[in-house]
């Protein structure tokens, strides 16, 4: 592995753990010049691995990484189903209508919803994930609302009691909810306990609860319980979902979209 490839791997590792780091601090940590870091960051920005926000590099866990030069090749676990997540997110965004107020949950699938929201629609969008907020700020007709609090770098999420109260005081047409696991008996689950109160708040605040999850999540159970499947109105997933799961979802009266 060449020096550049090794350095890029180290940069991504640091950003994955910390979420956001200044160029100066990265240069000091890797003991290279700021100019070297800027060149590396330019490559990572081209592949949407990071975004430069006033000199601070913010990691994007939903990035699609492609090989841009002969020295650089990196495969991360989170990219394995990125094509499915992108398709799910694009379809979910197509369900949004003019003047809707919506909530977009944290996650590597939900960021694709923000990325694909039509630029010609006037919308209000509540979120609490830094990557989703970065996508929304590029769209002039969207009014973002942000529920802040303590920052969790591994999920790029902000959460707090005050953030939950803020969400609880708002009513929206649609909430797009992510999940790490979906099970008929044990319900919708996620990995991090700190996500639970926020997820439950957005479910209480929304008219339509839309679960977005790729087919690998079905049949999986994680430790943090969010809600029962019967609390979900609509599910959007990819076409690899098994016939057994399709039957179970439809038998519960849940609207199902396979994309």
TrEMBL record:
Output the Gene Ontology terms for molecular function: DNA binding; DNA-binding transcription factor activity
Q: Does the keyword Transferase apply?
A: no
Q: Which domain of life is it from?
A: Bacteria
What SUPFAM superfamilies is this protein classified in? NagB/RpiA/CoA transferase-like (SSF100950), Winged helix' DNA-binding domain (SSF46785)
**Coiled-coil parts of chain:** none
Q: Give residue ranges for domain HTH deoR-type.
A: 4-59
**InterPro entries (alphabetical):** Carb_Metab_HTH_regulators, DeoR-like_C, DeoR_HTH, NagB/RpiA_transferase-like, Tscrpt_reg_HTH_DeoR_CS, WH-like_DNA-bd_sf, WH_DNA-bd_sf
User: Keyword annotations for this protein?
Assistant: DNA-binding, Transcription, Transcription regulation
Give the Pfam families listed for this entry. DeoRC (PF00455), HTH_DeoR (PF08220)
User: Which PANTHER family does the record associate with it?
Assistant: DEOXYRIBOSE OPERON REPRESSOR, HTH-TYPE TRANSCRIPTIONAL REGULATOR SRLR-RELATED
Q: What is this protein called?
A: Deoxyribose operon repressor
The organism encoding this protein is: Anaerotruncus colihominis
Q: What is the lineage of its organism?
A: Bacteria, Bacillati, Bacillota, Clostridia, Eubacteriales
């Amino acid at each position: 592995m060449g020096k550049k490839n090794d350095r890029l791997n180290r940069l991504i590792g640091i950003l994955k753990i910390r979420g956001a780091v200044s160029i100066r601090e990265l240069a000091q940590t890797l003991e290279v010049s700021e100019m070297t870091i800027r060149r590396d960051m330019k490559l990572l920005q081209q592949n949407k691995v990071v975004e430069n926000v006033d000199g601070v590099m913010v990691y994007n866990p939903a990035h699609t990484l492609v090989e841009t030069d002969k020295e650089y090749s990196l495969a991360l676990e989170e990219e394995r189903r990125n094509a499915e997540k992108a398709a799910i997110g694009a379809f979910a965004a197509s369900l949004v209508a003019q003047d809707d107020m919506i909530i977009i949950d944290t996650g590597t699938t939900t960021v694709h919803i923000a990325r694909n929201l039509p630029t010609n629609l006037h919308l209000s969008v509540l979120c609490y994930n830094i990557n989703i907020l970065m996508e929304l700020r590029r769209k002039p007709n969207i009014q973002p609302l942000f529920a802040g609090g303590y920052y969790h770098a591994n999920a790029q999420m902000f959460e707090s009691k005050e953030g939950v109260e803020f969400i609880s005081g708002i009513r929206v047409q649609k909430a797009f909810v992510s999940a790490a696991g979906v099970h008929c008996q044990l319900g919708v689950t996620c990995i991090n306990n700190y996500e639970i109160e926020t997820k439950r708040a957005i479910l209480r605040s929304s008219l339509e609860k839309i679960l977005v999850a790729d087919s690998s999540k079905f049949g999986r159970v994680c430790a943090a319980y969010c809600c029962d499947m019967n609390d979900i109105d609509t599910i959007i997933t990819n076409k690899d979902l098994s016939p057994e799961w399709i039957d179970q979802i439809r038998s519960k009266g849940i609207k199902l979209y396979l994309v």
